[in-house]
Amino acid sequence: MAFDNLHLEKGMYRESGKSFSQVLEALDPSEAYKGTALEGTDAFQRQLKRFNIRVKGAGSDPVEKFFATYESSVLFPEFISRIVRQGIEETDILPSIVATVTNIDAMDYRSVYSEPSDDDKELAHIMEGTSIPATTIRTRDSLVRLKKHGRMLVASYEALRFQKLDLFSVMLRQIGAHIRTSQVKDAVSYIIDGDGNTDGAADFYVGTAPLSGTLGTLEYDQLVEFWAQFYPYEVNTMLVSPAGMVNLLKLPELQNPLTGLNFQGTGKLTTPLGAELLTCPALSDEAIVALDRRYALEMVQSGDVSVEYDKLIDRQLERAAITTLCGFSKICHAASKVLYIE
Questions:
Q1: Quick one: which of 125, 184, 185, 243 has the most CB atoms within 10 Å?
Q2: Under 8 Å between Cβ of 277 and 271
Q3: Would strands 269-270 and 276-279 be described as parallel, antiparallel, or unpaired?
């Protein structure tokens, strides 16, 4: 079959605007395998089959199986990239924070925004002959700042060659989890402090109008009053620190049996206000970030997980960098707010 005859070489990682997987798919389209035993696999998975490399389970091969031939070694950087991406997705709370993800092929990006006034938000009747109310979309004054996040893979080929790929994958997924933690920290920072184009999220303090209560103590009344500040947006995501989560779960209203059943059945915590409750270690214990994830934040990324393929193919694993490049931009300033308990 076609996948058995492909010529693999380093240059496949250098094609402008295409990932290694995309280059493989162009040479060996998955559509050609419909109705066959290989239906449902992608081009990279078919190359693993070609070289009989098993990457999962108790019967997984050692790392050195990738280096049996030069062509099979070309697959190794893509394998690392995919497993790191799995680690990113396993610990991923960004989909509950960002409204959209923009992929670019450059280092610079200028986002757009629209901040309608209260009059603009009203759908007034349009009389015959009168002008139609306009919503103005503008470009940001400042560029979105992309940041590189990554980890260095420090190991010799001799140390890894006999290790099973299944075990090696655990280490790579951990790298992915660390990268995503750094990205989430950046996202929360942009929400709270602003992105250089807009100010930070509006601050509300317990005990200071329009919130009641006593500074340093959080009760359900303050959550409701905070929730009421979002109209016309809605609170569908709340971020709290681990210690803040403990305090919230002690509120009688969050001990409602239905809330507990939802957590026990799905592993997801929701507040009585209908918002998804997420633990975020990047937050301070005295702050709660609430947002309407449909409108709050844009994630901008340049490329996918990047690995130093030359080193990896040539077995120079010592200090091989695994990185991502991404940034964040606020879309609607009023769609995110911060509640300070202390």
A1: 184
A2: yes
A3: antiparallel
Cβ 304 vs Cβ 324: under 8 Å: yes
Q: How confident is the model at residue 226 (pLDDT cuts 50, 70, 90)?
A: very high
**Dist CA 254 CA 258 (whole Å):** 9
Q: Where in the chain is the domain with CATH 3.30.2320.10?
A: 189-299+330-340
Mean pLDDT of 83-103: 91
**Helix/strand/coil (H, E, C) string of the chain?**
CHHHHCCCCHHHHCCCCCCHHHHHHHHCCHHHHCCCCCCCCCHHHHHHHHCCCCCCCCCCCEHHHHHCCHHHHCCHHHHHHHHHHHHHHHCCCHHHCCCEEEEECCCCCCCEECCCCHHHHCCCCCCCCCCCCCCCCEECCCCCCCEEEEEEECCCHHHHCCCEHHHHHHHHHHHHHHHHHHHHHHHHHHHHHCCCCCCCCEEEECCCCCCCCCCCCCCHHHHHHHHHHHCCCCCCEEEECHHHHHHHHCCHHHHCHHHHHHHHHHCCEECCCCCEEEECCCCCCCEEEEECCCCCEEEEEECCCEECHHHHHCCCCCCEEEEEEEEEEECCHHHEEEEECC
Taking alpha carbons only, the member of 51, 83, 265, 109 closest to residue 170 is: 83
Q: What predicted TM-score, i.e. pTM, was given to this entire model?
A: 0.83
pLDDT in tens, 148-167: 999 988 888 888 999 999 99
AA letter at 249: L
Class of domain 189-299+330-340: alpha beta
pLDDT for residue 1 is more than 80 = no
Helix axes of 20-27 and 76-90: crossing angle, nearest 10 degrees: 120
